[in-house]
Specification:
Elements: H1 32-46, H2 49-53, E1 66-74, E2 80-81, E3 84-85, H3 86-99, E4 103-115, H4 120-137, E5 140-149, E6 157-167, E7 182-186, H5 192-202, H6 218-226, E8 233-236, H7 241-253, E9 256-260, H8 268-277, E10 290-295, H9 299-309, E11 316-322, E12 329-332, E13 338-341
Parallel strand pairs: 4-5, 9-12
Antiparallel strand pairs: 1-6, 2-3, 4-6, 7-10, 7-11, 8-10, 9-11, 12-13
Helix pairs in contact: 1-4, 3-4, 6-9
The structure holds magnesium ion.
Length: 353
């Protein structure tokens, strides 16, 4: 790639150095090459006033309300997969964690660990994907950092995002707020993200390819809040899937949760891939699905709102919070048998997000 004249606005050298086609150790040195990378790849894509100010930290006017703050590192392999890539994942991962507190996500930071030899084109694709995801979620990327490590010391690139949001509802939306009799409403079908990655790695192909469900949850959460529903808890179903999330919620609240297998929507291709690989879709990671736990009398309204606003378009009321034994999750199978749903004992799939 040829350097643009603007890229060297801060350079004293009259003859610009070529940026090259791949990341070199010099791109992380804090000197001219680093500046060039920022000017050429990051600033045009993220394009916020804070980055333009080129200060050591972003200065932001915070609206009235409680502040939600979250962080997440992303090491997914491969970097590009059906339905998404590490860039979109890095934005939606943190955006969705903020949403789960009832917050409206406002700003993100992004830290990049780049491996020497990474194609600049690859970085550019990832950064453009981050821009699209940030725009879709309505957040600004207002601070960032880049470091380069030697060849072989990381797998292309890793991205850490941190995010701040504002909680405008006076309600506390948290695992401790679960109450006996609450309904568990699932926002959409399960297992797409994990199986998209796993099928890619295993070289499996299907008639209709499985695409990641990676998506921002800003819209459905905003709609649920604006409807004035008495939401007790929201939880996105990432690593460990629905099963692990429900066990965590049951343990934090000291209550039990019972779910009904026949009500849980799983795409046919996900079911098929799970059978081949010996996996349970309940434990497979999602990146755009969540559960909303609220009083049973409000579950139908939540279901209607999720049908209109949530990615996935197949929400379902899948279970109920009970009074015990504390921390226990049970699942009623298709034939009516009950079994205890446990945490995964190990890692089902490393490097999934
Ligand atoms: Mg989460």
């Amino acid at each position: 790639m040829d350097p643009t004249p603007d890229a060297f606005a801060f350079s004293s050298c009259p003859v610009p150095l070529p940026v090259g086609s791949e990341i070199t150790i010099g791109h992380g040195g804090g000197g001219r090459l680093t500046q060039d990378l920022i000017n050429r790849i990051f600033r045009p894509a993220f394009d916020t006033d804070s980055l333009e100010a080129q200060h050591d930290a972003a200065l932001l006017d915070f609206p009235a309300g409680r502040l939600a703050f979250s962080t997440d590192s992303h090491v997914v392999s491969p970097l590009f997969f059906p339905g998404g890539d590490i860039g979109g994942l890095a934005i939606n991962g943190t955006v969705n964690d903020l949403c789960m507190t009832g917050a409206r996500p406002l700003w993100l930071s992004a830290g990049f660990i780049l491996e020497e030899g990474l194609a600049i084109d690859t970085l550019e694709r990832v950064v453009q994907s981050m821009k699209r995801a940030a725009d879709a979620a309505g957040v600004g990327i207002v601070a960032g950092d880049t470091k380069v490590v030697e060849r072989g010391r990381c797998d292309g690139l890793y991205i850490t995002t941190s995010g701040i949001g504002v909680v405008e509802t006076p309600r506390t939306i948290a695992p401790t707020e679960l109450r006996e009799g609450d309904a568990v409403v699932l926002s959409g079908d399960l297992g797409r993200h994990g199986m998209a990655i796993m099928a890619t790695r295993a070289g499996l192909s299907f008639e209709s390819p499985i695409e990641s469900d990676c998506a921002p949850l800003v819209k459905p959460v905003k709609a649920l809040l604006e409807a004035g529903l008495e939401i007790h808890c929201l939880r996105d179903l990432t690593r460990g899937g629905l099963a692990t999330s429900l066990v965590e919620l049951a343990e934090s609240s000291g209550l039990s949760i019972a779910i009904d297998a026949v009500r849980i929507p799983v795409p046919e291709a996900v079911n098929g891939a799970c059978e081949i690989l010996g996996l349970d879709p309940l434990y497979v990671a999602n990146e755009g699905r969540f559960v909303c736990i609220l009083p049973e009398g409000e579950a139908e309204r939540a279901l209607k709102i999720l049908t209109d606003t949530a990615p996935g378009k197949s929400p379902a009321i899948i279970g109920r919070v009970g009074s015990g034994p504390a921390g226990q999750v049970t699942q009623r199978s298709v034939i009516g048998a009950e079994r205890i749903v446990d945490r995964l004992s190990g890692e089902q799939l490393p490097r999934i997000c």
